[in-house]
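Class, discuss our next protein.
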Amino acid sequence: MISACLVGYLIVGFGVFLFVKYQRGIAGVRYRDICLPTRWSNYRVARGEYYIIQAQALLAQGSYQEALPLLRLGLHSAPSHRRARLALAQLYLDFRRPDLARTCLQDGLHLHQSDPDYLSSYLNFLFNRQQDGRVLAICRELLPLAPAPTVRDRLLALAAATACYNSGNYDQAEDYIRIADLQHQREGRLLSLKIDWDRGYHALALLDLRAFANEHPDDPEVYAELNARLRASDQSEEARRLSVGFQIAHPMLARPRIDLLRAYLEIGERSRAAQEIDALIRDFPNDSNALLTLADYAANSGDAALATRIYDHARSHRLETAALAFLMVEAHLVGRDFATALSLTRTLLSAHPDREQSHRPLFNSLQAIAHYGLGDRESGDLFLANFLTSPTSRAENLLAIADRLLSVSATDSALRLLTKAIDADPLNQAALARLVSLELNLHRTDKIAPHLRQLLTMRRPSPDILRVALHELGSNTSSVTPDPTPLLAEIRAHLAAADSRIRIPR
């Protein structure tokens, strides 16, 4: 009886195997995967891979809607399929569901935590969403105390250093660069140069950047960094020559052409600038990064017409427009057309309810600036308060908003924003340095002593800020502290170390 049942089970199993393999087309299944309960998980994986193969074929044909459910089914049965998980996350992004993309990538982290390609994709996703805290948490969890010289560990260390840099925590960023021996790698060295610049060592950073650019003459990122720093140092002629040379060598890159556009405007060549703008939009119609760079230029220069043109172009080409919308409003603010900026913000938020949750805090900051610009302090305070109750943005965003507040004479609000930033993150050297600099510029030395002492606890504070502080506090000691001598002596010691650092080559 038992033998008959066993034979019947095997026959039925063989029939199921034939049906699954040849009727359903699941080529990866084996007969033993059907018959042996201990191997049923193998069958589930084979079935999942079958769905994934079908989905990949649909993706190749551009049938994204049809591929989506098959990818989800496939991953449910074969969760360790890396390419399918990355493809599904990308589909979610294409369908404007970053929340589902993040969940999809997070669910696969424990399966692919040793895979540099997967880690790179997930960390880049988080960086693009400005989730530096989450990046740092992942890196701390996965990175050993003594990182090995492997691609994975260096990737994690660089991501952690970048997250710290984005948050203004330069000391910890340098710690990650050092422990993973990244200072001799391209990415680590470039990040170190950015840190030097942001700390105020402009001459040293420029010297090293020039040498670095000579070593990497065809590197767009190195070029962009050097060009930006040259312009910030009022060395526009050298920057223009750099842009011309790089544009000739790389005619299909957008960044050097935008830099040339800026150079044309600086020397009054508006007709050539207009031609260059037309050529850029014509040559890079679907390049989101190129359009974003051009829109950023338009925002910083107050060219609202150009920012609006880029936004309308992106909408007509079905490109992502959230960041472009923000820059379009900012261009009106820089151009001091506050009423239009306010009206435009309300229109954008009402027309795109999906921006309510994810982008409303930043738009609230823009509305605050617009109200301050119109002289409506009460409304400005209200919108700024709403912005400050939201989760904090990157340090660079907070600093940019503070600078915009200063441009409309909202000094107290800018100070409040910077103070909140360092209260939330005492290691944020970028925000702390900006706060101390602002207090010095406004001659508000009565409350500067604790902020200055906090800055002095960090590695290599800006020598420019320290020189101003030494002069300001030395001439007005009574309002700083009852006994300013120790503080002034510490400032002099840091300045001596800064001079030594600049004189001694690394």
In short: The two ends are 86 Å apart (CA to CA). Residues 64 and 121 are 20 Å apart (CA to CA). Confidence is low (pLDDT under 50) at residues 4-25.
